[in-house]
Amino acid sequence: AASAWDPGGGLLVPLVRTGQVLSVGCFGWAPVAMAVRAAVGRLTDDGLTGGTITVSNLGMFGVVTGFPLVNAPQAVIVFAGAVVDRPAVVDGEVGIRPELGLTIGFDHRVLDGATAARFTAALRAAIEATP
């Protein structure tokens, strides 16, 4: 889901259905489309219920890191920060590499730590595999 501010009603978290089958690139655009629909008042109740994971992208505003809180009844929130250049060691060489900071919060009433760790590892692998 992607959050969008509704001036008349506060925060909305529209749902991206079948997000698990989208490529990382396609999934990146789906929340933008939903946020636009929310901003112009074109979301239905079906577009706001039944989510599992919230994606909070304050990185688009230059925010590097944050501490997200899970919105019940969802189980996970992924905070994506801004991509910044940082020193990194790759193949024994120090260089400057772009780095994306992610912070992930889990509701441990829904997920145990091992499941949360597998999700985090899979998300990292998917992001790193994206050109």
Write up what this structure looks like.
With 131 residues, the protein is of the alpha+beta class. It is built from two helices and five strands; from the N terminus they run ββαβββα. It has helices spanning 24-39, 113-129; strands at residues 4-6, 10-12, 53-57, 76-90, 93-106. A hairpin with a 2-residue loop joins β4 (76-90) and β5. It is globular, with a radius of gyration of 16 Å. The protein starts with a strand and ends with a helix. The model is unreliable at 1-7 (pLDDT under 50).
Strand neighbour order, sheet with most strands:
3-4-5
Uncertain spans, ≥5 residues at pLDDT below 50? Answer: 1-7
Q: List how many beta strands DSSP finds.
A: 5
Overall body shape: globular
Distance between the termini: 23 Å
The total of helices stands at: 2
- Summing up helix and strand content along with how strands pair, one would put the structural category as alpha+beta
Biggest beta sheet attributes: 3 strands, mixed
| H and E order | EEHEEEH
Rg result? 16 Å
Helix content: 25-40%
What's the pLDDT, averaged over the residues? 79
Strand coverage percent = 25-35%
Helix and strand topology:
Layout: E1 4-6, E2 10-12, H1 24-39, E3 53-57, E4 76-90, E5 93-106, H2 113-129
Parallel strand pairs: 3-4
Antiparallel strand pairs: 1-2, 4-5
Label this structure with key terms.
single chain; 131 residues; 3-stranded mixed β-sheet; 25% helix; 2 helices; two-stranded antiparallel sheet; alpha+beta
Short description:
The protein is α+β, with helices and mostly antiparallel strands and 131 residues long.
